[in-house]
Design brief:
Number of helices: 6
CATH topology of the largest domain: Arc Repressor Mutant, subunit A
Strand content: 5-15%
Shape: globular
Structural class: mainly alpha
Mean pLDDT: 85
Largest sheet: 3 strands, antiparallel
Number of domains: 2
């Protein structure tokens, strides 16, 4: 069976959608999330690396010496999951962990030269992915997409801050 044949078509709309255009936009966004997640896993999950390791290396490249706790919080992963990721990266020679000099209870994580090399390689792969996906859009389409997504994310953030009620007082 050709797996890719199932990726392009939209799922059917629910028969009771009061705004079918909004429902189609919602489904298109969901399809983007689903396909993007699959693409990221395929791009960054190899015999050498798991996508969690890739994101950890990227974060450390910007914030070398972060604490394990801050890594977990920033990546929205459990502390045991981050410990597991770091153990794999440490075994591969990509990171080293050290106790904080001021507070021995805190473990700091640093990239090694190997970790920097791996992060740079992953960044180049991501840049290629970005160029072959969003990069194919016109500048105007990229600006419009950004504006629309910012508008929707702003509205979702408002709903979350307001206790998840929509404009008519209904729960989300």
């Amino acid at each position: 069976m050709n797996h890719c044949a199932n990726l392009s078509g939209p799922p059917p709309l629910p028969p009771d959608a009061t705004d079918p255009v909004a429902a189609r936009a919602f489904q298109a966004l969901g399809r983007i999330f689903h396909l993007h997640r699959q693409a990221m896993q395929k791009l960054f999950t190899t015999e050498e690396a798991h996508h969690g390791e890739v994101f950890c290396l990227r974060l450390l490249s910007r914030n070398d010496g972060m604490s394990q706790r801050d890594l977990a919080d920033t990546l929205h992963l459990s502390r045991p999951r981050v410990t597991s990721i770091l153990q794999g990266l440490e075994k591969a020679g990509a990171v080293r962990r050290e106790a904080d000099s001021a507070d021995q209870r805190i473990t700091r994580v640093f990239l090694t030269d190997e970790g920097r090399r791996q992060e740079m390689q992953h960044r180049e792969e991501f840049e290629s992915y970005l160029e072959t996906t969003f990069g194919t859009l016109s500048d105007k389409d990229k600006e419009d997409l950004t504006r629309i997504l910012d508008q929707v994310s702003g509205r979702i953030a408002e709903l979350l801050c307001a206790g998840t009620k929509d404009h008519e007082g209904r729960g989300m």
